[in-house]
Amino acid sequence: MPSFRPLPPSMLRPAGRRVATAPDASGIHVPVSQAMVDCGVYCEGTRLPGKYTHAAALNKVHEIEAAGGSAFVWIGLHEPDQHQMEAVAEVFGLHELAVEDAVHAHQRPKLERYDDTLFLVLKTVKYVAHDSVAMTREIVETGEIMVFVGADFVVTVRHGEHGGLATVRKHIDTTPTSCKLGPYAVMHAIADHVVDDYLDVTDLVETDIDAMEENVFSPNSATEIEHIYLMKREVVELRRAVSPLATDLQRITTDHNDLISKEVRRYMRDVLDHTIKAADRIEGYDEVLSSLVQAAVGKVSMQQNTDMRKISAWVAIAAVPTAMAGIYGMNFEHMPELKATWGYPTVLLVMLTVCTLLYRTFRHNHWL
Q1: How far apart are CA 281 and CA 242, in angstroms?
Q2: Which residues 6+ apart lie within 8 Å of 226 measured at CB?
Q3: 3 pLDDT exceeds 80?
Q4: Where in the chain are the domains?
Q5: Which of 106, 272, 290, 279 is nearest to 201 (CA)?
Q6: Which overall architecture, per CATH, does domain 9-299 show?
Q7: Which transformation does this protein catalyse, written as a reaction (predicted)?
């Protein structure tokens, strides 16, 4: 076996990609291992035993490649700080602009290419379980996964408390056939995992929307438009996470043929189909919620009209005795039946009769 001497970090970094290494605000550099979730070396589709640092793992890959083998390293990071990300970028030759995005997060789904490295940003989603929409302020929680893919490495950076890749790594570890396709097979597995979550979340959101729709069109239920607006806000957030990804996955299936094998691109087309399916569902939910807002507004308007009719009917009924009492309350001496023995009972009877007739009329016309 030919000897191999590891390259210094300065030579592993492509020219023109200098990354600053200033300490953080506290002046203490936290080691990369604190942010590292896992680091594995894969040779011919099989994960090699042992634990590695990010630099040692890449050196191991170079040793295997120098011996004529095929290998790559997959390192996973969770919310690394600036120094930790720069240390990883120094070894793997990551572009400083992509490194900045990976540290600060809050990126839209996108795909960028830096020479022979692809940088893919995926938005992860999680459905927040709740008893009812009225009892929660958040339905969909989002996070991010950044994926750096090169010829012999995969670097994943995750932001958020959900969206872990343990199941993906377990699948990669136990499926040598797919792992033999190289680092871009890992990218496919991650994208497939994230998009499957899209479909699961949209199914659960649909259940909430169906319940909300039933409530809006139920005649005896109180309609809270604020709840519909909450759901619409969550659907908008879900759309921002899912819809832009379709364009980037389309580019993966058609472009970058020099980096991605035909077999991996076939798998990515399946992920693209699922993404489009999820995006279409979300667009449909948005339209349904817009219709529910209009229906809820119409229902509230009808309820207000009904209330106004009831108020007007009772006012009309009360106006009769009020008018008669006002007339007979005047200080005139010569008024009909003013001196009569039965004058007072007669006036009360007339009041009662007219009010009864008005009440029956309003009831007949469904005002009361």
Answers
A1: 11
A2: none
A3: no
A4: 9-299, 308-364
A5: 279
A6: 2-Layer Sandwich (3.30)
A7: Mg(2+)(in) = Mg(2+)(out)
CA distance 285 to 288: 5
Helices (H), 106-224: 166-174, 176-179, 183-216
Q: Kindly state the tokens that stand for 108.
A: 């839209």
| Predicted confidence (pLDDT) per residue in 139-152, tens digit | 888 999 999 999 89
Q: Residues 183, 192, 76, 237: is their CA dihedral positive or negative?
A: positive
Q: How far apart are CA 188 and CA 5, in angstroms?
A: 32
Residues 6 or more apart whose Cβ sits within 8 Å of residue 54: 32, 36, 39, 73, 75, 87, 88, 91, 92
Phi, then psi, of 142 in degrees rounded to 5: -115, 155
Min mean pLDDT across 21-35, 195-209, 239-253 is at 21-35
Rounded to whole angstroms, the Cα distance separating 163 from 142 reads 9
Which backbone phi and psi does 227 adopt, to 5 degrees? -70, -35
DSSP labels, 277-342 = HHHHHHHHHHHHHHHHHHHHHHHHHHHHHHHHHHHHHHHHHHHHHHHHHHHHTS--S--TTSS-TT
pTM of the full structure: 0.76
Q: How far is 314 from 361, CA to CA, in rounded Å?
A: 12
Position 231 scores a pLDDT of 87
Instruction: Decide: helix, strand or coil at residue 71.
Output: strand
Whole-number Å distance between alpha carbons of 84 and 266: 35
Amino acid at 282: I
For residue 37, which of 126, 194, 182, 166 has the smallest C-alpha distance?
166
pLDDT digits (tens, 9 = 90+) for 211-247: 888 887 877 776 677 888 888 888 999 999 999 999 8
Beta strand 110-114 with 117-127 is antiparallel
Position of tokens 């389309």? 250
CATH code that applies to domain 308-364: 1.20.58
